[in-house]
Structure formats: C-alpha cells, structure tokens
Amino acid sequence: MTEASQLNDGRRDIERAIAELAARLPEPLAPVARVVYNYRWLWAHGSRSAISSISPSNWHQSRCKHYLIQSFPQAQIRALAGQSQFVARLQAAAEAIDADLRRPWAQTGIPPEHPVAYLCAEYGVHCSLPIYAGGLGVLAGDTLKAASDLAIPMVGVGLLYREGYMHQRIDETGWQQEYWTDVDFDRLPVVLVTGPDERPLTVEVLVRHRSVKVQIWRVDIGRIPLYLLDTDREDNHPIDRWITSRLYIGDRHTRLAQYLVLGLGGVRALAAMGIEPSLVHLNEGHGALSILERVRVRMAAGASVEEALAAVRQETVFTTHTPVTAGNEGYTQEEMEPVLGDFADRLGIARATFYGLGRVNPTNEQEPITLTALALRTSRVANGVSRRHGAVAREMWHPLWPERSVEGVPIGHVTNGVHTLTWMAGPMQALLDRNLDPDWRSRLCDAGLWQRIADIPDGDLWAARNALRARLIDYARERSMYDRLGSRGDRPDYVESAAAALDPTVLTIGFARRVANYKRLYLLGRLPEDGLMRLLADGPRPVQIILAGKAHPQDKEAKETIRRRFELRRDAQVARRMVFLEDYDLHMAPRVMAGVDVWLNLPRPPLEASGTSGMKIALNGGLNVSVLDGWWAEAYDGQNGWAIETPTGDPYQQDEHDARALLDLLEGEVVPLFYERDADGIPRRWLQRIKISMARLIPSFNAERMVRDYLERVYSTRPRT
Q: Which of 166, 334, 469, 501 has its CA 20 to 30 A from that of 309?
C-alpha cells in the first residue's frame, strides 16, 4: 500500500470506531471494542465462547439480527464489568487476537504494499453481515479467513447490500414467499472509509448517462480488510441508490449496474485508497469489468489497446465456479449498451472490439455477451473449483480456444476447501483438544496429525456426536415451532406437534443447500416402492430428515420442489420424522452441519462444480452420501462415506437410477451400520468410518490448503501462452 493509504484505507476509521465504543463501556470491558470490530473473534480459540457468554439468551435469540454488543442493556454491561472471571477471559481473548494481528506477513512473493485484490459479488463471513446468498459467498468468506491465518497480503472487494439477500417464508400452501429487510449497518463492525478531510471517500461511475457516487465501507476479517461499495447516497438519483440494494436482484439492468460498480468502482476505490494490487483475483465473473477499467487506465497513460490488454492479463487470475447456465449469464449488446455504453465511449475502443471480448466468437454480433468469457479471455490463469470441474470447464469453454485440444484448454483447477475453525463445532474442537497435540489448530494440513484421530476413544467420539445431534434436534424443534406458528399460523395441534418432532437418538439425515433443480431435492420424493415412508416409519431402525434451503425468487421450478416436499407434512408420521426449516442462513447452517449424521448430496452430474457443505459435515463427524460429482469425485475412497455413480444418458433414467441407488444404500448399508451396536451401545464400525472420514478429508479439504494451492498453482504461475 502507498503512503497515502495510511490515511485513506479505513484503518483510521476503524480505530475511531473502536475508541468511540470503548468510551461507552466500563473500563474493564474496553477490550471488547477491539474484539468486536474485527471478525477474527469468530474463529480465535476461546474468543467465541467469551463473546457469547456475555448474554447466552441474547446471543441465541437475536439470530444475528443485531450485532451482539450494541444490543445489550447498559445495566447488563455494568454488571459484567464487575465479574473478574469474565473480564479475565475477555482480556485474554483480546490479547490473543492482537498477537495474531501483529504477526509479520508471510514471505510469499506478494509484497504487503501490493496485495492480492480479491473481487467477489458476495461474502459469507458471519450471519450478522448478510451480504451472501450461498456457497460462492461462504467460500469467499472462508478464503479471506484462511488468507488471514496464513498472513497472505490480500484485500477483499465487494458490494454492501442494504437489504442483503432475500428471506424465506413458506406459506400455508407450501409455496415460498420472499421478503427483504433493511440491514442496520450502524450496529455492525463496518465503518465508512473517509479521506484526509474526514468526509466519506467516494469514487464515481457512469451508469445510464448519470454520474453515480460510490462510497466505501470497511470491515476487518482478521488481518484482511474487506471493502464494500455502496451507492445509497442522498446525492445519487433515486434509481441509482437502488443499485446496491439487493444481492442478485431480479432486474437484469440493475444486476449489470452492480457488476459495473463492482468492477469499475472496485478498481477506482482501491486507487482512491492508495492500494496498488499486484494481482487481481476474480472470484466468478461478476467483477470482470475491472479488466476493462484497468485497460482504460493504461490506455490513458499512452498504451495501445493491445498493449493494455496484454499488461492487464499478466496481473489477472480467474476462478469459474459453475457450469450452470444461470451462473454464466449472457446479455445482448442492446442490454449492455445503456449500462456500459458511456464507459465504452470513454475507452475509445470500437464497439465490435469492446463487446467481442465477452463473446466466444468475437465477430458474431448475435452471440450473447458473458462476463465469464471476458474473464477467461483476459486472465493469465483460470481455474475450476474441483478436479472434475476443471475437466468440465475445459470442455465447456473449448470454443474459446478452438485451435487446441480439449485437454489443452488453459483452465486448471484448485479444489475448494472450508475454514476449519469456523465450521467445526465447539464440542468437536474440545474433543480434539483432549486427544491431539495442543497446536493442532495451526497444523490443519498435517495428514500425520489427523491420523491420530484413530486413537480417540470410541465412547468419547460417540458422546460428542450424540451431543451435537441433540443440540440440533433442540434447535430444529424450536425453529419448527416458530415457523409453524409465527410464520404460517398453523393449527395449534400441528404447532404443538413440533415439540415432539424428531428424536435426539435417531439417525439424522440432512439435506440443506440452495434449492435449484440440478441439486435434485425432489429425488427424496422419487424413492421407489414408498421408500421414503418406509425410512420414516417407526421401528427398530428409524430415520429422520432435516431439510432447508432457499429457491431463487425467479426459480419457479425450485419453488415447486419445495412445495411438493412441504405437502408431505399432512402425513402425521412424516411430520414427526421430517422437518423443513425456513430461511436457511449462516445462523442455521453451522447447527445443521454439526448435528446431522448423514449428509445427502444429489446433484445431476456434471453440474456440481465443487460443493463445500459435505466438507463441513466431515469436520464434525458426519458422513457423506453423495453423487460422484464435484469435490466428492476426488474425495471418495470407498471407506470415508458412500457414493452414487450416475449413469450418462436421459435425465429421467438418471433420476430413476439414482433414486433406487440412494434407497438401496440407505436401507442396505447406512441405516444398519448406524444401528449396529455392541454391548456398551456403541456403533463401533460406524465410528470407524467417521474416523477414516475425518482423518482423510480434513487435511485435504480445508481452506488453508486451498489458499496455499492458489499461491503455488495460480498466483505464482507463469502466464499461459
């Protein structure tokens, strides 16, 4: 970072906010201000429990609607200041976080003054910061956390969505209804970045012939700053204030304007803050217009368009996340022109050349323009997010390089990973504290360390799994009662039945993720021979299922899938053994992923680029039953879970095959193994499979390994030829 950035990059604004909060707290609690203004407390050992213990009931009931400290009564704060034991825990947490943030940057060849700029449309850091929709955002949040752990110089750039992503309510017919709420950013550890004059720092972009002012917010994720761009200013046109209102907004023109703000505005914001990145990492194509802005800067300095493109390509890397059409959205030139035409005029490039950069065939003016094609054509390195997805992406984008073989298409892969200390539940971490080396948290990629999971006493592992399942069942019952009464106003007897739904001793299967038809939630209703009802029936080996997930507001097919599953509630047995939890988010997900025994993943191959939820299940001793697609195609070894191999061919026949294979696996292997107990009531062979799963998956599918792979295989890779 340049010297000017010392004043402009938001650090001064963070320090001012910390000082203001500390001044409102009793002196013994002043360290809490430093803790809560950095999301590092989320995964710092002992810090989460210290913060949540301030008021367990408030922590539980708020569901992240308000940031914790800001919502406490002053009387409660004063009482806490007199509790020496709590004050000591808080101070220890603050000192541990401070010590972590003081560590020197890693010697990686990326200078701290020229960090990697990571551009993404969404970030899933914590449920209190609702600027995420699903897996892409959570992956981005985990990446920033791992970069902080590894001391990799990086800055994140995204958008600050005033209404976040949609909330979900299921009406009495089972149909998903959406609603949005304003996010109270005054209650979050997010600060407006100001300039030397202490006024909000802004940059401008032209949208629809109007100059739009963009202000910048900063939030710290460990040692990594995340900058969020915002057009909701009184000096902007009312329509332009709406640009950064909602994530993945339905209106296509507004989405294009968001991509313009993220791409062009992101580059200009970094420059205004004095941040000169050595590399720009585009996490999905939403930020690809940053390429054109950097081309403009070089052309303004005298370079030709060819020279500028070549220079920008040297400093751009791109990760593509999906082969699904909706994730590679195409626009006509007529749609692009109102949003991008002003910029194209300023750039001085012929329209055919300008828009041709986003077409597979640059000369075909009838072809849709995609940001994915733009990013692939103008990045020095590109990658998919699993080994199989890399191969799928090479075939999918082969037309961009028709002179090459499919194998020669320059798209590699870096398999995703998850942030272990975010997603591993407290009881499981405590179990590892008792059985692994004290420094296990700093040795996440050490395969030899994780082999020692085999030595954990079966009784202790089983007790941890039972505790996590019981905690999930309590949560699911409470949420189910709330959904039935508060959301839908169901019959009193049906509401009361939620209190008896589920059983903390029963094999619990989870299916919770974004509801898109290629994820095939509907396969549960396609199990042959009344298979679902047979699984849920009372008997010596019962099964219960927890479902959750949102459909995009415009995805009517996915909404219909939810409705059909919801209809099953009319059967009393189903209502007792299967629940659908509304409004799946980062408050709910950790509880579900820690508590289920089995995780179902049923995508239609090859549309699952990676998938990370199953990795989170493995962290907590759950087992995967998954189609061999995405990450599971390289993770499954025959002992660490179960796999379904989908035949190629007609989708209907695929569904029939996979539904049968799923039922056969559950009835023939999974359920019997779970209920196979010894004289002590312990399922030894089930626990053996858990130990194998944890030992083999945790060191290979964590975010630290992923970021190291990016360093070695993407950031340090020579440009393609």
A: 334
Distance CA 247, CA 576 (A): 35
Residue 100, burial from CB neighbour count under 10 angstroms (0-12, 13-18, 19+):
middle
Let me know if 491 is exposed, middle or buried by CB neighbors in 10 A (0-12, 13-18, 19+): exposed
Which residue, among 562, 479, 483, has the nearest Cα to 519 in the 3D structure?
562
d(CA 714, CA 709): 7
Query: For the segment 519-568, what is each residue's pLDDT rounded down to a tens digit?
Result: 999 998 899 888 888 998 888 999 999 999 999 988 899 999 888 887 77
CA dihedral of 559, 287, 251, 133, whole degrees rounded to 10: 30
Q: Rounded to 5 degrees, what angle do the CA atoms 88, 187, 191 make?
A: 95
Spell out the residues 6+ positions from residue 244 whose beta carbon is closer than 8 angstroms to its own: 159, 160, 161, 162, 229, 230, 231, 232, 258, 261
Domain boundaries, the chain: 446-699
Q: Decide: 416 and 700 in contact? Cβ < 8 Å.
A: no
228 sits in which H/E element: strand 224-230
How far apart are the C-alpha atoms of 708 and 522, rounded to whole Å? 37
- State how far the Cα of 614 lies from the Cα of 642, in Å rounded to an integer: 12
Between residues 684 and 208, which one has the greater pLDDT?
Answer: 684
- The Cα 533–Cα 545 span in angstroms is 12
Cis peptide before 606 (omega within 30 of 0): yes
Residue 71: the pLDDT is 61
Asked whether 317 and 279 are in contact (CB, 8 A), the reply is yes
| Cα separation, 239 vs 262, whole angstroms | 17
Task: Quick: pLDDT tens for 568-579.
Answer: 767 777 778 889
**Phi and psi at residue 225, to the nearest 5°:** -80, 140
Q: Is the pLDDT of residue 100 over 80?
A: yes
When pLDDT is averaged across residues 466-489 and rounded to a whole number, the result is: 81
Contact call for residues 207 and 240 (beta carbons, < 8 A): yes
Is-contact 670 382, C-beta < 8 A?
A: no
3-state secondary structure 585-650: CCCCHHHHHHHCCEEEECCCCCCCCCCCHHHHHHHCCCEEEEECCCCHHHHCCCCCEEEECCCCCC
Domain spanning 446-699: CATH 3.40.50.2000:
yes
CA–CA separation, 122 and 247 (whole Å): 8
For residues 680 and 649, what is the distance between their CA atoms, to the nearest angstrom?
48
Residue 690's nearest CA partner among 424, 506, 456 is 456
Q: What is residue 48's predicted lDDT score, i.e. its pLDDT? A: 73
Helix (H) or strand (E) holding 466, with range, is: helix 458-482
- Containing 87, the helix (H) or strand (E) segment is helix 84-101
